[in-house]
What does this fold into?
Amino acid sequence: MKIALLLSGGVDSSVALRLLKEAGHDVTAFYIKIWLEDELAYLGNCPWEEDLKYAREVTEQAGVPLEVISLQKEYWDTVVAYTIRELKAGRTPNPDMLCNQQVKFGLFFEKAGKGFDKIASGHYAEVEESGTSSSGGKIFHLKRSPDPVKDQTYFLAYLTQLQLSRIIFPIGMYAKSEIREMAKKFDLPSKDRKDSQGICFLGSIKFSDFVKHHLGTKTGDIIEISSGKKLGEHEGFWYYTIGQRHGIKLSGGPWFVVKKDIEKNIVYVGGEGVIPSRKLFKFSVESVNWNAVELTESRELGVRIRHGGAIYPATIEPEQDGNTVRVRLKEPRYDLAPGQFAVFYDGDYCLGGGVISLMA
It folds into this structure.
C-alpha cells in the first residue's frame, strides 16, 4: 500500500516506519509542525528541533522521503483555543483527544493524506475489521494494545468510523519492551530516546508554564471544605483539577482538590477523611462519539476516565438525544471532573467516549 506515516522522531513512530518498509509498503513520512513559535518563544530554544533532527536521521537511514507539513494555525484554532477555553471555564481539558481526531487524523488527511491508501502512526492500539454495516461496508473497530501501560485507545476514542477505516497502527500489537528491542535491531538513531511525556503540542515544556503564559496568575484562597478554614493561597483555579493530589503544596496532607468556585477563585480541598463523602456513583457524558456501533440501549461496559487509569465496570444508558449517556459506576469515584473524557470499553474493544458533564 501507499502509506503516509506520521513521524515524531521518537522510538515508536521510528519502529513503525521500519516495520512498514520491511513489509514492502511505499512509505512517505510526514513531520507535522504544530508548535507555537511565537506563543512559546519566551521559553527559549524550540524543544521540537531535536524531534525533527531525529526524524530526518531515521528517514535518511531507511531511505524514505520526509515532508514537513505546517498545521500551526489550524492547531491553534482547534486544540489550543479549546484548551484555554476549557481552563477558563474551570473544566479539565484533554488536548490530546482533539489533536488525534481533528489534527493528526483529520486536518492532516485533508491537507496531505488523500493520495494515500492508509495513514499510519506509532500509537499503541489496533484497528480490526469485523462485520458489515447496514450499507454493506466493513466495520472498523478500535482495539486495545496488549501492553496495558502503553495502550493509547483512551486518546483515540474520538476517532470516527471513517477515520478508523483510513488508519493503520503498525506497532499496536507489540509491547513497549518489544519495540525497544526492534529499535536496537534496526540500530535506529532514536533507539535510546526517552518516551515523550505531557501534552502533544508542548513537548518537554511544562503544562503549568503554558497555562501561566495564557492565563497568568490570580491569587485566591485554598479552603478546607469541611471546616471552612483557609489553609493557604493559590495562583489561579485554572491550575487545579478535581481529584488532584500532587502540587497542592500544603502541610498536614495528603490533600485532594474536591471543588472549585470559579466566580470567587476559591479552591476547596479535603483530606482522606472527606473522600468517602465526595465519591460519586452517577454522572452524565455528553458529545458522545461511538466509533463503530452506536449504543441504543442500556449496557454493562467498562469506563476509563483518564489515560493509563483503570477501567471501571459501569452501566451505560443512552439518552434520547443520541449525544448523551448516563453512567452508573459499580464502585464510586472521587476524582471525576467536568471536562474530562470518559471512554467506554467492551473487553478489549474501545467503543468511543465523550465529555463528563453533570455530576450526581
About this structure: The longest helix spans residues 95-113. The CA atoms of residues 319 and 325 lie 5 Å apart. DSSP finds ten helices and 17 strands in the chain. The radius of gyration is 21 Å.
